[in-house]
Write a structure and sequence with these properties.
By secondary structure, this protein is α/β, with parallel strands linked by helices. It has eleven helices and ten strands.
Length: about 325
């Protein structure tokens, strides 16, 4: 395993972060693993040297947090960096169980800590931007959470760069805790973040921990086979992201071509490209397979030539912004 410093937090994290959306309660999504299989993933990640885990209150309606917390309780908790998130409404009959008001942040962070079995989480992130709550109010609530010892750092996720700049400026102006990390949508098939968000993060020393590094599986297999898995079929049917538009198919084909040349999987080629991005600290790798987790970690040892990295990038064309919803 390789390790890096997360932004300017001073925390050392593995360069592979295990995303925990894929386990918890299969009744939430039919591709989600049950508790036993989720436990196996976490335990194998620890064996491989992963010390960074990312979950959220909405994943399996809290079951993901419970599984992760139960497993880590059997180890030395201080050896791990645990991140969770809040924003999406947790209970249909309670509109205040979502959003980023002070009430929502305080009650949902407490609920997350209870499920995780922890007094403090290392990184608490806002899962999306809240148009209904002034950013000053959200930042004051998060600052209080840090001062009360409920989280060590705060981070955020996909938004427009101008919104993130506003949040950072507000924190500086009011002397409040800053967002230390950005969890954004970024991969070989979706590079719109390179225009404004990634340069902003680089300038502000913000840690970058991209979600969907394999484009929800679109970078893990030839595009003709994209509906081979339950999750892939569901994503394709929903047309959630334009991964195969504007050069996407050719990028996919080039990933497959280089995977064959290097004798590795497509996923490893796609991850190796991300590991070479100077602005990226640790991609969040979500998987339902121990084998795929092992592949992701092994990709750290893969050295792809600069010319081949450029070859992967060359077909890309702008696509509609996605991931902020």
């Amino acid at each position: 395993m390789e390790y890096t410093t997360l932004g300017d937090t001073g925390m050392t994290v593995s360069k592979v972060c295990l995303g925990c959306m894929s386990f918890g309660d299969p009744s939430w999504r039919d591709w989600v693993l049950d508790e036993e299989a989720g436990r196996e993933l976490v335990e194998r990640a620890i064996e491989l040297g992963v010390n960074f885990f990312d979950t959220a209150n909405m994943y399996s309606r809290g079951a993901s947090e419970r599984v992760l917390g139960d497993v880590l309780a059997e180890y030395d908790r201080d050896e791990f960096v645990v991140a969770t998130k809040g924003y999406f409404q947790m209970r249909e009959d309670d509109p205040n169980s979502g959003g980023l008001s002070r009430k929502a942040i305080e009650q949902e962070l407490d609920a997350s800590l209870d499920r995780l079995g922890m007094d403090t989480v290392d990184l608490y992130q806002t899962h999306r931007w809240d148009d209904d709550t002034p950013i000053e109010q959200t930042l004051r609530a998060l600052d209080d959470a840090v001062r009360r010892g409920k989280t060590r750092y705060v981070g955020t996720s996909s938004m427009w760069a101008h919104q993130f700049a506003e949040a950072l400026h507000t924190s500086d102006r009011l002397g409040l805790e800053r967002f230390a990390t950005m969890q954004n949508h970024y991969n070989l098939l979706y590079r719109e973040e390179e225009r404004e968000m990634l340069p902003l993060c680089d300038r502000e020393d913000v840690g970058v921990i991209p979600w969907s590094p394999l484009a929800r599986g679109f970078l893990a297999r030839p595009h003709e086979e994209l509906e081979a898995t339950a999750r892939g079929a569901a994503e394709a049917e929903a047309d959630r992201h334009p991964y195969l538009a504007n050069g996407g198919r050719e990028v996919n084909e080039r990933v497959a071509e280089l995977a064959d040349e290097y004798g590795v999987s497509m996923a490893q080629i796609a991850l190796a490209w991300l590991f070479e991005r100077d602005t990226v600290d640790a991609p969040i790798v979500g998987t339902t397979s121990v084998d795929h987790l092992e592949e992701a970690v092994a990709a750290l040892e893969l050295s792809v030539s600069e010319s081949d990295l450029a070859y992967l990038e060359e077909p890309y064309e702008p696509v509609p912004v996605s991931g902020h919803e």
